[in-house]
């Protein structure tokens, strides 16, 4: 019998809960994303989706610039007032002179609003994935909309992009498989390579 009077969370669950708390600071009008970096079992950096320091956020402007311009989710991130949570966690570590090499990043995402809004598959976008690779993180643990989390090994991203290309990545931010197992963004099919089509057909 367990010595604990309640189910004790695993370390991955514990750190993902910290990322959930961080995401509440987000200033995006669409989503709330929080990131926490753990190294040697210690919190070394955090970040949330928000406007650059000292600038006016989308919440303060009262509207999403990308939405007003009709830019689909998952595209043209340079036209956004916010810095992504993953990027802010990496930047904040640099500001304090903290090494991230060999650490783990935990990312929690949900639709903007109260605690009852929908949880997201908090997979990093391509820009964030490239930064995560270059700063030497080892694992990335992301919340899933159906509950729980998915663990990515960063070395595997590198290997997959060596053998294929970034467009073949089936865990793109904003991409979902429809009922026919076709990758879509905003329910519109996207063009993918024959290699990725084969992987999806095989259920990989």
Structure at a glance:
This protein is of the alpha+beta class and 204 residues long. 29% of the residues lie in helices and 21% in strands. The N and C termini lie far apart (38 Å).
Explain this structure to me?
- This protein has 204 residues and is of the alpha+beta class.
- The longest helix has 13 residues.
- The mean pLDDT is 85.
- Helices cover 29% and strands 21% of the residues.
- It starts with 10 loop residues before the first helix and ends with a helix.
- The protein contains seven helices and eight strands.
- The strands form two sheets. Strands 2-1-3-4-5 form a five-stranded mixed β-sheet. Strands 6-7-8 form a three-stranded antiparallel β-sheet, with no helix packed on it.
- It is globular and about 50 Å long.
- A hairpin with a 5-residue loop joins strand 4 and strand 5.
Count of distinct strands:
8
User: Rounded to an integer, what's the Rg over CA atoms?
Assistant: 17 Å
Q: Helices and strands: which structural class?
A: alpha+beta
- Unreliable spans: none
Q: Helicity range of the residues?
A: 25-40%
Number of helical segments with 4 or more residues = 7
- N-to-C series of helices and strands: HEEHHHEHEEHEEEH
In whole angstroms, how far apart are the ends?
38 Å
Mean pLDDT: 85
What's the main sheet like? 5 strands, mixed
Percent of residues in β-strands: 15-25%
Strand order of the largest sheet: 2-1-3-4-5
Quick one: overall form?
Answer: globular
